[in-house]
Amino acid sequence: MTTDPKVTTLLKILIGVAWIDGQIQPEEREYLHRIAEEKGLENEPELQPLLHEFRPVKAAECYSWVNEYLGNQPTSEACQQLIEAISGLIYSDGTVDTSEAKLLTDLQLLDTSHPPSESVKNSVLTAIRNIYQRWVATLNA
């Protein structure tokens, strides 16, 4: 089976985001394995050492994969899709680390449809607030 390199890179980014705070949380681990299975990547040789935590991923490596994934001139749609994918991972453990929030902010700044401004920071904070609200809602359900 031939896999789409873009999908493989996306999963590498998600693994990197899970490591960005220094360790993978159990909920993040479960989420990553579920995504790998859904995408048919659970046996992808390139992903095995990352998916099974044989080696940690440094933030610089994660950012490198983000740049590879988005290319030199990322579209607004590509940035938003990546933000949504990362938000799903971040939501999985119910906490947003400052390094995760920084990555989301950096992605918002890459979005060509939004010039850098306070509104970008506010939209990231709103997204983080929404994640927390959904998490609290699931706890109370």
From TrEMBL:
Please give the coiled-coil regions recorded for this protein: none
Task: Output the InterPro entries linked to this UniProt entry.
Answer: DjlA_N, TerB-like
Highest taxon listed in the record's lineage: Bacteria
| Annotated Co-chaperone DjlA N-terminal domain residues | 12-106
One Pfam match, given by its short name, reads: TerB
Please report the name of this protein according to its UniProt entry: TerB family tellurite resistance protein
